[in-house]
Structures are given as structure tokens and as C-alpha cells.
């Protein structure tokens, strides 16, 4: 009897020891969050060395690592050599011809998305070289991404917010939401995850709209798209010296008002889709 009790006790001890050796189950999402890395990609033209040097100095000041994406100079690419672009489709949707700088912007952002996907990082901040870095950018951007779900991006800077609908507040006390009216303007700084980046590389081709307009059309791209109520970065003094085009350049490529009716119709329909996209967002 005593011998049986001894064997029983030893058997239980062995079982408990084996259980202790079994590693605890960890949610893959939690593991990914713990190991995540956020890279900052800066789109910069070769001729804009002063902008890059300014950002490098800020990166050193705030202990940030930035990766330069050599921007595509749309001015040196012949119209016949533009890939994923159909002039008639662009004119139909915009009522004007494409500016060379717009094509360069579009291609540059796609290159940044491709490099981000190849890096293996979970999230990336993609920015243009006319904004300023700051020490709170990464924690505030991550908090914005963690406050929403799905293949997603959050715009961190806009030129205008009309009809902003708040959806949630982040752990960094920023308000994230969507706008009922647009376009909001600017693709100067946004944070995106891998699933969203892969979707964008597919759904943003061919180029039908300027990149900043196309980026925020979540109802079309299949990417859950949000924006912060306050800009998380400031524009630098270089903003006034745009490399894409000024108002005089846009006016020069506009078609006759009667020939812009297709663009007006598209924008009206798109505005209705934008309104529905913002209204249906759940808090």
C-alpha cells in the first residue's frame, strides 16, 4: 500500500514537471506587437539635398532612424514612358492633364511602399521631405494605429479637415476619425501596416488620380483609412517651394469647363461615397 502511494506521488510529480516545461501559449498578435518595428521612409529628390540634410539633423536630435527613398523626378520621364498611367482616364477623372510632378509623386510613394514590404517591418511611416520630425511622432503614430483595426493607414497631416467625425481617442490623447468632405489634401505623412501597403500597391494602379487624393479613398482601395484630428507633424519652410506644381501650373492644364463635366460627375459620386464611408465608421 505504501509502495503504491509512493509511485502515485512520483507519477504526479513527473506530470507537474512536464507541464511546467510546456511554454505558455502566446497570442501571435501580441507577440508581433511586442517585436514590432516602425521604420520612417522619407521621399526625397536628388536635387533637394538641403531638405534631406535638414531632416537628417532632426533625426539625430530626436534619436530617430530615417531611410531615404530617392524620389522619381517626373520632369525627366517622357509621357510615353509613364507606366500604369492612361492619359485619357486621368483627364476623365480630373478634367485636366497630369503634371509631371504628380506622376513623380505617385511613383515615389509606390516605391516607398514596396521597400517597406521588402523590409519585413510591421508598420512604416512614409513621409515627404517638406515636413518636420519630432520626438513624439513614433509613439503617437503607433497609438493611432493601435486604436483602429484591419489593413489600415492613418494620415498624420492634412491641409484641411471638413466635417470631421471622431471615432476614437488614442492612448496618446489624439483623436482619430474620418472626414465627411474632401479631399483633405496632402500625402506628406502617414503610417501604414503591411496588409494595407500590399493592397495599395494593387488598388492604386493604374494612376487615375493624384496620389494624395487616391490615398484617402478607403472605400476604393479596400484599406481602412483614418486621419488624426491634429497634425502630428508640422510642415517645414520648404512647403512653399513645392516640387509638384503651383496653382498657375494646375490652371494651365485644365480643360474647357464643358469638357470637365465628367470630372464634376465623378467628384459628386465620390463625395457621396466619402460621406457614407465616414458615417458608417463605428466608434
From TrEMBL:
Residues 40-213 form the Glycosyl transferase family domain. The keyword Transferase applies. Keywords: Transferase. InterPro entries: Glyco_trans_25 (IPR002654). It holds the Pfam family Glyco_transf_25. The keyword Transferase applies. GO terms for molecular function: transferase activity. This is Glycosyl transferase, family 25.
Amino acid at each position: 500500500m505504501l509502495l503504491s502511494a509512493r509511485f502515485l506521488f512520483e507519477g504526479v510529480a513527473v506530470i507537474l514537471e512536464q507541464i511546467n516545461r510546456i511554454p505558455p501559449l502566446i497570442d501571435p498578435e501580441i507577440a508581433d506587437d511586442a517585436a514590432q518595428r516602425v521604420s520612417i521612409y522619407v521621399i526625397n529628390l536628388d536635387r533637394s539635398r538641403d531638405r534631406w540634410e535638414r531632416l537628417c539633423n532632426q533625426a539625430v536630435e530626436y534619436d530617430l532612424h530615417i531611410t531615404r527613398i530617392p524620389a522619381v523626378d517626373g520632369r525627366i520621364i517622357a509621357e510615353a514612358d509613364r507606366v500604369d498611367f492612361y492619359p485619357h482616364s486621368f483627364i476623365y477623372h480630373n478634367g485636366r492633364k497630369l503634371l509631371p510632378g504628380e506622376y513623380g509623386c505617385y511613383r515615389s510613394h509606390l516605391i516607398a511602399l514596396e521597400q517597406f514590404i521588402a523590409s519585413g517591418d510591421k508598420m512604416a511611416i512614409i513621409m515627404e521631405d517638406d515636413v518636420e520630425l519630432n520626438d513624439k511622432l513614433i509613439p503617437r503614430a503607433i497609438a493611432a494605429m493601435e486604436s483602429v483595426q484591419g489593413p489600415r493607414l492613418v494620415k498624420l497631416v492634412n491641409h484641411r479637415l471638413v466635417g470631421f467625425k471622431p471615432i476614437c481617442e488614442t492612448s496618446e490623447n489624439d483623436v482619430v476619425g474620418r472626414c465627411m468632405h474632401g479631399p483633405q489634401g496632402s500625402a506628406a505623412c502617414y503610417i501604414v501596416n503591411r496588409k494595407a501597403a500590399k493592397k495599395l500597391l494593387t488598388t492604386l494602379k493604374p494612376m487615375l488620380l493624384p496620389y494624395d487624393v487616391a490615398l484617402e479613398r478607403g472605400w476604393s482601395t479596400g484599406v481602412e483609412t483614418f486621419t488624426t484630428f491634429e497634425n502630428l507633424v508640422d510642415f517645414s519652410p520648404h512647403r512653399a517651394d513645392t516640387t509638384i506644381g503651383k496653382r498657375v501650373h494646375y490652371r494651365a492644364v485644365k480643360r474647357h469647363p464643358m469638357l470637365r463635366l465628367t470630372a464634376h460627375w465623378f467628384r459628386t459620386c465620390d463625395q457621396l461615397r466619402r460621406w457614407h464611408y465616414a458615417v458608417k465608421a463605428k466608434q
